[in-house]
Design a protein that fits this description.
GO terms for molecular function: lyase activity; peptidase activity; single-stranded DNA binding. The protein is mainly beta. The chain has helices spanning 11-18, 116-119, 189-192, and strands at 5-7, 38-39, 47-50, 55-63, 77-86, 106-108, 126-131, 133-140, 143-149, 157-167, 173-181. The strands form two sheets. It has a five-stranded mixed beta barrel. It has a four-stranded antiparallel beta sheet with strand order 3-1-8-9, with no helix packed on it.
């Protein structure tokens, strides 16, 4: 996947894409929304051209104090939707370093276990990312033509991803993620061939 996507999904659409429960507008509330805890959703800015370094809503199983809903296990874990920055910044990155969100915005599934930046996250730091589509560029000589890849029925694309938390020199914690990729499907051979 190239480093551009479209995400204008509402929090309820994101929750449904992840298979998380949502509230109902008929339940006396102010409308449809996620029925799971959310963190920092105010950081998300819907856009037709999202690139690494931007915040996107991410679905994960996280430790939640006193969690007893949403199918959480006895260990206090449950589903959560949290805004994280696209482009993995490993937790072992130096506190004074400037984060490079483009360096690890995706990871090849075939080699993810070989790289320490990703391998250590596989067990407990898995998550999901939903977007409406993404952009790929086809080279034609010296020109590049962008193509928007999405489902015909306009349902969200949900990607497997890995996340981490990095602390900068001021003590601020930034959660970041990388999307797991694999070989292009045969229906996209014309674009990658």
């Amino acid at each position: 996947m190239c480093g551009r996507a479209r995400c204008t999904l509402s929090p309820a659409e994101v929750a449904r894409a992840f298979g998380f429960p949502t509230t109902s507008a008929n339940a006396g509330g102010g409308g449809d929304g996620p029925a799971v805890p959310t963190l920092h959703l105010n950081r998300f800015r819907p856009s037709y051209n999202v690139l690494p370094g931007a915040y996107l809503p991410v679905g994960a199983m996280r430790a939640l104090p006193g969690c007893a809903h949403g199918g959480g296990g006895s260990d206090g874990e449950g589903p959560v939707i949290q805004c994280m920055k696209w482009g993995l910044v490993p937790s072992f990155t130096g506190k004074a370093e400037k984060p490079d969100y483009f360096r690890m915005f995706n990871a090849r599934s075939e080699s993810v276990k070989e790289k320490v930046s990703f391998r250590r996250l596989i067990q407990k730091n898995r998550c999901l990312v939903a977007v409406e589509g993404f952009y790929e560029w086809k080279k034609n000589g010296s020109k590049k033509q962008p193509y928007y890849i999405h489902f015909q029925d306009h349902r969200p694309l949900v990607f497997a991803a890995l996340y981490d938390a990095w602390t900068n020199s001021e003590g601020e914690i930034t959660h970041t993620f990388t999307i797991l990729t694999t070989h292009a499907s045969t229906s996209l051979n014309w674009l990658h061939g």
